[in-house]
Amino acid sequence: MILSTSNSEPSRVPWMRIWVVALLASVVLAGAWEFTLRDANLGPKYVDNRALWADARHRLNQEGTDAVALLGASRNQRAIDVETMARLLGRPVYQLAIEGTSALPTLENLAADPRFRGTVIYSVAPAFSFNRRLSKVDRGDQSKWVRFYADQSRVRRVEQRLRLLLQGTLAIRSPDAAMPRVMASIRESGSLPAPDHKTVFADRSVHIDYAAQPGRADESGIVDLYLQNTEPYTDAEFQTVVNYFATLVRMLRQKGCQVFIVRLPSEGKVRALERRMFPESAFWDAMERQIDATFVHFEDYPGLNGYLSVDGSHIDSDRNEEFTAALSGVLQANGLR
Question: Could you tell me the pTM of the whole model?
Answer without folding.
Answer: 0.90
